[in-house]
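hey m, so remember when u said the tokens were messed up on ur end? i reran from scratch. heres the input so u can diff it against urs
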Amino acid sequence: MDRKGLFVIKQRDLFLFDKGVLKMIIDELTSKNGHLMIDGVDSVELVKEYGTPLYVFDISKVRNQIKKFRSAFEKEHLNYQISYASKAFAVKAIYQVMKQENVHVDVVSGGELYTALAAGFPSDKISFHGNNKSLMELQMAVKNHVGVIMLDNFHEIELLQQVLKESQETIQVMLRLTPGISAHTHKYDQTGQTDSKFGFDVKSGQAKKALKLVLDNPQMKLLGYHAHIGSQIFGTEGFKMLAQKMIEISKDFQSEFNYWPQVINLGGGFGISYNEDDDPITASDFISVIGQELKQDCKEVPEIWIEPGRSIVGPAGYTLYKIGSRKDIPGLESYVSVDGGMGDNIRPALYQAKYEAVVANKMNQTDVETVHISGKYCESGDILIKHQKLPQTEVGDVLAVLDTGAYGYSMAMNYNRNPRPAVVFVEKGQAKLVVKRETYEDLIKLDGNY
């Protein structure tokens, strides 16, 4: 099978197909002149209208992934909430899509909270995360009556007590726990193990101390417990262990404090397929495992919350670039440069993340060479993709990097004083600009003179 076949299958989650089905899907993703189509919109035409680099989101894919999570929970007959982890991608338009889909969102800063509120997202469906929330951020959360504050440490309990006392308000809270489980993922993405900057440690007794403080405060209404074991997780074993551990902890705490959680939040971290080496589990796989453990281990199953971010927006995203210079080295792979790079996608430099790409205006051409895709930034580590197979490229060709919907725009920066790209949403043949491209004037608007 060629790369285009692999690309199509990966994007559509098709693993069993015949030649007729494969041709139908290729026809849907490729126009008659060989252009990459994104939900009925020609990617090359998007470049002509909005320029490059350009983030494009297929919103039908976003909605479909949410439906898959819902269906998996309903199949298991579990009470649940899907809470979009908006750190993956946080702009007004995506919060509005989440509002349309009637899901919760979680935010991790005052800026994300402000954006969600400005988008008209209902505050009672917002969870506020973070390991070092400021006094101002907590005041903002209480003033706007967010649905739940995830308490991460003792300092935060003290700050929130102060805010609630001064405002004479009450608010729902959850305790973030570190249950001592490490996910099989990149070391910087592991957050559930004991040695972590996040949450109250269970083993040392911190969690019990925090629980008592919260239960003793009538202005804090404890909703339950939260844990998150990592990111880009491919197996079900970690989630199975987490469900077991959270029930074990809940039973232990119940025996001492006579409190049973209304909600257990198992976080996110569900992996997606960035390249042919990735083999992610489906929503049905891990929710089935979670459901079986909970039903087996406790009489009263709490409402289960999950916090998918990457798995909702990641596969829906494409980053479009124009190809520019090329460096050919005898006996080595050539470097093909694009007009973006680590400023719009830091993950390859930061995490050694692997992506795949296609030439959007040459989808019907055969791969003839293997090259490195390099960015324009003044860093030798600004390589977006190593060993990428492509057809013969020319200056001005459009390169589409796939599955860039998560942690692309949200981690974008102005290094080398490059403006951040525009963002376009496409859905059912229609395109809409939802974030304007930054200008050079935008880059200096906060600068003062000396």
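this time it looks ok to me. Residues 60-313 form a domain with the TIM Barrel fold (CATH 3.20.20.10). if urs says something different then somethings off w ur setup not the seq
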